[in-house]
Amino acid sequence: MKNQKSEFLRISTILAFILIPLGGLTTDIYIPSLPAMAHDLGVSVGAIQLSLLLFMISSGFSQLFIGSILDSFGRYRISSFALLIFAIASFAIALTTNIYVIYAMRVIQGITVSLIIVGKRAFFVDMYSGSQLKHYTSLFSIVWATAPIVAPFLGGYLQEVLGWQSSFYFLGSLAVIVLIMEIRFSGESLSQRQPFSIQPIVKVYKEMLKTTDFTMGLLIIGLSYSLLVVYGMVSPFIIEKVYGYSPVITGYSSLVSGVALMSGGIMSKLLLKRALFTKLDTAIILQLFAAAMMWLISVSTVTIWVLIVFTAALHLASGFIFNNVYAYSLQRFTHNAGTASGLTGGGIYVISSVVGYGLINSLSIKSVHLLSSVNLGIVLLLLVVLVAFKHYVKARTV
Question: 226: which of 21, 55, 245, 311 is 20 to 30 A away, CA to CA?
Fold first, then answer.
């Protein structure tokens, strides 16, 4: 077995940070291409949006179970194989015009992305401890937020110049390049493997899911991310079909959203030593105000700036809340890092995809005002869960 060499640890850490946003990159890069894909493939808007949902569901559910496999069989070989399969699936999507082949490849992408990012999140727990570990885990959502910044911006230009297939050629090529670097510099990071037995694994999951603050944390970060899911699915059609702008403008709007998300994460990092619930209380109040103002103003004002400005405010608060609660949840079970990482990451995707796609499919969101109503509903639900989370954690620590 090729173990991680200490002289290459810095390079392997950088590679891990490159791969952590892969899930967001795989969804967001072709967001500006959704209308063009629907037209070129001769399918409905809902059929194309389903490709996003299938990726998120497959990635989310597989993350729930993959962590225990990685804790038992290691990270390196599984992650390397997953990178190869991910690249093949990406190229297959670019080469086909069959929507059902695309669906199948999106499911494969979801599973392989889960193997990769769960292993890379656990890599940090394997290789670092104490203040270093806390430092790196606090950077996770900041690094993760690079995908909503870079991916739609890049995807908009790729769509405009080369068509929607180019986004998937890019994903496949990126995976091949990183795989080559991984083979050269990385190695196995897990020093002590857990025996692979169904009964102990089920016991670990039960322990985690029975931990009330951990479960509430999953719900909070899932609801926070659902605001981005809803925006990502409906904004291309509002911007390109309602307002008549190009995919490049969709990319720019997502760029603003991504910068706001990352800024929230950076603010969280800068305020790391402040009391957790003082930060969360302030963030949810500001987010509720932004959601309410967007709803009121969008009744009579229909310019694209209402969409962009208030979405940025909502996603800034989401990034802040997400980063704080994500770091809290991930550090609750350091003795089962892979399982905790998988359950946390999977919970985000399952909750956000069910909430996001459920609202989109049932309400058929085609206007900024209806989008603002959905945002307001999600934020109100998030407020309720945060209050319960705060009450439980404070009661537990007394």
Answer: 245
